Amino acid sequence: MADETALRTCPLCEATCGLEITLRDGAVHRIRGDMEDPFSKGFICPKGSTLKQLQADPDRITTPLIKRDGVHVEASWDEAFDAIAAGLRKHLETDRNSVAVYLGNPTVHNLAAGVFARVLVQALGSRNIYTASTVDQMPKHVACGLLYGAPSSLTVPDLDRTHFLLMLGANPAASNGSLCTAPGFPDRLDAIRERGGTVVLIDPRRSETVSHVTQHHAIRPGSDAFLLAAMCNVVFDEGLVDLGAVESYVRGLDEFRGLIAPYTPVVAERMTGLDASTIMTLAREFAAAPSGAVYARMGANTARFGTVNAWLAEVLTMITGNLDTPGGLMFATPATGTPVGPEAGGRGWRSGRWHSRVSQRREMMGELPTVCLAEEIMTPGEGQIRALITLQGNPVLSLADATKTDEALASLEFMVSFDIYLNETTRRADVILPGCSPLERSHYDLAFTGLSVRNVAKWSPPVFQVQRPTDDEILARLALILSGLDHRADPSLVYDGALLNVLTRAAQNPNSPAFGTDPLSIVSQIIGRSPADRVLDALLRTGPYGAGFGDDNDGLSLGRLMDTPHGLDLGPLLPRFPGFLQTADGTINIADVAFAEDLRRLADAVVETPTDLVLIGRRHLKTNNSWMHNLEILTKGNNRCTVHVHPTDADRYGVVDGGSAKVTSVAGEVIVEVEVTDTIMPGVVSIPHGWGHTYEGAHLSVAQRRPGVNVNILTSTELADAWSGNAALNGVPVTLAPT
Ligand code: SF4
Questions:
Q1: Which tens digits make up the pLDDT trace of 686-730?
Q2: Class level of CATH domain 60-131+369-450
Q3: Are 433 and 112 in contact (CB under 8 A)?
């Protein structure tokens, strides 16, 4: 049989690279970058080609598993869904808040989950919804929600046009970018420098990204807010404020200046370790650049002051004339987004519509912070979580305080997981429903087209068809159960509901190409091989570039994307204000009371005694959080799960390179191999996340041979960003001792 070629988007990380997959004899023969993908232009990282190994992994589950006498055994789909219905029934009948859902990071890379997980959550009607967003990014949502009125509309640095990129706590040479979709991110950094621009990296580590930047400055973990506030002060003090394109919308300038006044460059020097003159120079150069963007990412979000960090990053960009303008922080115009009109103003953002039962942490975007999950399971009383549904995540490895999380999962009365592996978390599940592999489902990036540095659209069909329920059907049948229906009911009930919901909203939106249409009369024009594809077609047709439902136009639809398998370039980012400004009064209040209140904690931090040694995370180009360690090709070679220790700290604590050390925090302790390196600043140690494949009952035969340690045994749910509740996984106080 002749070789065949399949084109698709890599679904593994946010970079969304185009892949060219060669199929031979019904199996993947080779995967390389798609040179004709208009966005990634042939770029892929070492993970992209390993979809071949993932597809062939014998540990991947393809048959439902039910736990019987403590052991997972294979079962039929009907048996599995019957067990789920029986396990959830009494909880659904007595208190829907007693059933929780956790949506893991991979759901954002899965079209079916992007469409139907929301339906499932709505069908459940519980307040106990948790997602990976409060592990790594909720501060950014909060900042954009409060400033611009729409927490899911996030600013992205206009990488390809900026003259000055200031990055805090980001390592795109390893992560390939996060909350900023830019395939070939390191090349784009190089391009900034090649066109005479400046790239500054602020990070306690001299990370892999350092070779792509103009300057690197190490600061103490968790001190980003002091640096950003000091830079804002310099901009004000030296008369450099220029609001540029957003001048007529911004309010609270004087109040903001008053709020940050105490955080001068001198204070910042003491808190960050970076000298005041460097901070002042940075501020002046950033303000003077023809364009500039602040990209505050993982290290700045997963910190005690995550919301303040995210807020100040937006405001520094704003007061230097760089918001919503080329080269600054901009908003994408995703093809599946909601079209907006020409006027500023919308419904604004409301949070805190309910609070967690135990710690009283606020709801944001319909979810509660993951730092609450374990206590909500383990604290008796009305509203206690007794059953959990996990969708493609691994909270035992990814949430703060792994020991508490695992104990909590063990105490549940019932748990069901939707996953492709029997991993450290799903081993606790009573039923595991195996989802499709990335090559067994169609793909479109609903989320990442909204975070992209160019506007793009690309749809990929499945490479392989499965002879078992697809992800659409699995999620629909779960939704039926949560709705109180028999899982054997027609899943079209769920599919049609989701589709009509999109069409109805579009018909009511005067800015949509489908405005005024009758949803029932146009539904027959929708195409798609799968239910999720049909919803995608509806979103595309009714979106900002949409074809609507006429005969004669060249707007977007799924059909058009089927005809352009390498993907469509829809152009550079465009200014989106005023229409995209969704605050209730159509202004941007940079001194919102929420920020002002949170800033008080920063003042307290100035008088705290500095911690002697703190822990930060780390990631590697060949890892993808926790879930790709079962691929030999990615994990072979030297042990990468080591603790990085600066030589002066190694001497101080008596640990040696290649030896092992005990790292201890208030939450727990781990024994880990030591790597002495001057790439990390003194007073800081680093352990990568996603490791720790040591839990009995999991079945990851490759990962378990090189298990590493679970860094979240050391992180604590007590350490969280106050406003967003995001876990503070960086800046964790620890001690170090030789073993
Ligand atoms: S950078 Fe991300 S999207 Fe691109 S090939 Fe690697 S894992 Fe896939």
A1: 999 999 999 999 999 999 999 999 999 999 999 999 999 999 999
A2: alpha beta
A3: no
Task: Kindly indicate whether the domain formed by 611-738 is annotated with CATH number 3.40.50.150.
Answer: no
pLDDT of residue 552: 62
Q: How far is the CA of 236 from the centre of ligand 1 (A)?
A: 41
CB of 462 sitting under 6 A from ligand 1: no
* Distance (Å, whole) CA 258 – CA 599: 11
Beta strands in 256-310 (DSSP E): 293-296
Q: Domain spans of the chain?
A: 4-56, 60-131+369-450, 138-332+586-599, 487-566, 611-738
**Closest ligand 1 atom to Cα of 16:** 3
| pTM reported for the whole predicted model | 0.97
Spatial distance between the Cα atoms of 542 and 512, rounded to a whole number of angstroms:
6
**Other C-beta atoms within 10 Å of 140: how many?**
28
Q: Tell me the C-alpha distance between 692 and 713, whole Å.
A: 9
Q: Which two tokens stand for residue 218?
A: 């190490």
Query: Model confidence over 570-618: pLDDT tens digits?
Result: 999 999 999 999 999 999 999 998 888 888 888 888 777 778 999 999 9
Class at the top of the CATH hierarchy for domain 4-56: alpha beta
C-alpha–C-alpha distance, residues 124 and 376, integer Å: 17
Q: Which CATH superfamily includes the segment(s) 138-332+586-599? A: Dimethylsulfoxide Reductase, domain 2 (3.40.228.10)
Residue nearest to atom 2 of ligand 1 (CA): 13
